């Protein structure tokens, strides 16, 4: 895992006003449980404010958790976790961050862009605490904005989908129709069309606006995927947190169809093991690396601040090769990656 070079602070993105991040949620979307684990030594006290679903979503939140777990294992200390609910208000998110900072947790990480507005306020109130936010940009002297080029990884997912589709018909399912998830759609569709413009691409979002249930509703994901399969799609990419687990289940039920996972390498997730033969690849987003880098910087006494972007060129996003299902098209994927990293291909961030 590589340390990503620090970039200059950027303007607050439109996505900062939206809700959760890419993949969120477990089957209990209204869970607000907290937990802590102790370590030895002086270590670090890590406060994690999860998006809906929290630890156990098999995707986005779990990736962030892996980063914190690695830091705790190396440095000792403890982790305190608080989890968002789909019914959260801005006041709820602000209170969650404040509770962690007030209790002495440092750093405090907001896992998901839903925390952007609340972190702007809370970070200013606790200037001695280091805050990190995943998937958004917050302007604060004590804030590390951890961002990713999801559109670039999704472009490669689109290339893979186009090359592996036999029906020349693929699909994209997004959790919520917010700017962040639109980046996934934009990159995926561009990758498909650049590879074969004749391929049909279906797109569907599971919830809209401030309704974050689309990130934590496996039943909705399964229904959406089944509809696409019935309509002729044979490769479906889902960026919808634990809702994607339902989509993967549906795809696994149709012979010859492929699912593309997101955020974590879902082929290797124990809870999805019975569907692994249908998981073509996953667009891995190394949230764990971003969280670990941030915690380490605080532990070392040199907290990261500003915007730190984890790009395709720096392996911040990638396509998983587990299962060997894309081995036959790897050369073409490598060629597409090279064109993106050298600037020959400009990947769109909006559909």
UniProtKB/TrEMBL annotation:
Chief subcellular location? membrane
UniProt topology in membrane: Lipid-anchor
InterPro entries per the UniProt record, alphabetical: BMP_lipoprotein, Peripla_BP_I, PnrA-like
Q: Where in this chain does the record put each ABC transporter substrate-binding protein PnrA-like domain?
A: 50-348
Q: Which residues form the signal peptide?
A: 1-23
| Origin: domain of life | Bacteria
Q: Give the similarity note.
A: Belongs to the BMP lipoprotein family.
Tell me the lineage of the source organism.
Bacteria, Bacillati, Actinomycetota, Actinomycetes, Kitasatosporales
Record key words, sorted: Cell membrane, Lipoprotein, Membrane, Signal
Q: Where in the cell is it found?
A: Cell membrane
Protein name per Swiss-Prot or TrEMBL: BMP family ABC transporter substrate-binding protein
